[in-house]
Each structure stands twice: as structure tokens, then as C-alpha cells.
Amino acid sequence: xxxxxxxxxxxxxxxxxxxxxxxxxxxxxxxxxxxxxxxxxxxxxxxxxxxxxxxxxxxxxxxxxxxxxxxxxxxxxxxxxxxxxxxxxxxxxxxxxxxxxxxxxxxxxxxxxxxxxxxxxxxxxxxxxxxxxxxxxxxxxxxxxxxxxxxxxxxxxxxxxxxxxxxxxxxxxxxxxxxxxxxxxxxxxxxxxxxxxx
Length: 198
Description:
The protein has 198 residues and is of the alpha/beta class. It contains 6 helices and 7 strands. It folds into 3 domains: 1-108, NAD(P)-binding Rossmann-like Domain (Rossmann fold, 3-Layer(aba) Sandwich), CATH 3.40.50.720; 109-142; 146-197. The radius of gyration is 22 Å and the shape is elongated. The protein starts with 11 loop residues before the first strand and ends with a helix. The model has no long low-confidence stretch (mean pLDDT 90).
């Protein structure tokens, strides 16, 4: 398995199912900017207010996976999920079936986000509860304000590159620890830069 972070902005995603699990997965995808189509004979009430979502109130039909880049099933019916998985897999479309790891070509991780910093934990579908527990435990140990720390380090990286210096030559461990521990004087940062690049 290869953990990756996907930019779903504007991507077309199909969710089949209208219950609570389907809602949670669809909302997570929609919140990342994907254009989500949700097919189900019935929907729990929360679906109506979901952004970037199109509700199609009917059962899944053959061919419904066409044109989508991700497909998520949460019907609660393994036979239906198998049909959807087989169709999507034949089209080369990445598919996730809720609570059914054998019918998944990708898994949704338990995530903690602070700005551009994302921590993700997966058990490859074996135990979502364990993934959530580990995510929460890790999040409690993380430094505060990681979003601004990441932006500060990105700024430093850009400054170094603009000076024609390879960022591979920099001792980033020291810079990360400095950024986490709090602001320092510009003179100390300049001295650290000179020492790291010498």
C-alpha cells in the first residue's frame, strides 16, 4: 500500500448509499472540494445541506460509475457493493466499499489537519476504530499552530532557493525544531543559514 494525499478539487466522485456512513464519507470528500454525486433510493436528512453535492434518488444502475474518478459504496448490501466494485474496477476507477476491505482499491484514512499539515492513520480497513484512536492520540502530542509553522518553513525554503542554494544541503531538522520552539531573531536565522550551507 502507498499512502498518498489527493487533491480532489473539482474531481468527480460517486457515492452510492444514503445512510449515515455514506453521509460521513461523502461530506469528507465534498469538504475537500470534490463534485460529489450521491445515488440512493433514500437519504438521511443531512444530505440536503451538503455543498458540492448532487443527489440522485434512485437505486444504482449499471453504467452509473462511468465518468467518475473515485467511487465509494456504502449501501449495506454486499451484493450491490460487489456489482459496483466490479464495474468500477473494470473501468480502472479507484473504489472504496464501506466496512468491506476486500472490495476496496483504496482506503480512507483517519486524519488530523492543521492548515497544510495532515496526519493520516490507516489500518487498511482492518480496524477503523484503531485508526481513529491512534489519530486522536497522535494529535494530542503534536505542537500547536502547525499551520503557521509549515508556512514559515515554506518561506524559508523559498528564500534559500532564491539565493541559488540547494535545499538538500540544509539541516532541516534544526530549522524545524527552531520553528516549533518559537520565533528567533533574524540574525540567528542568518547565522544558521550560513552554517548549514557552508
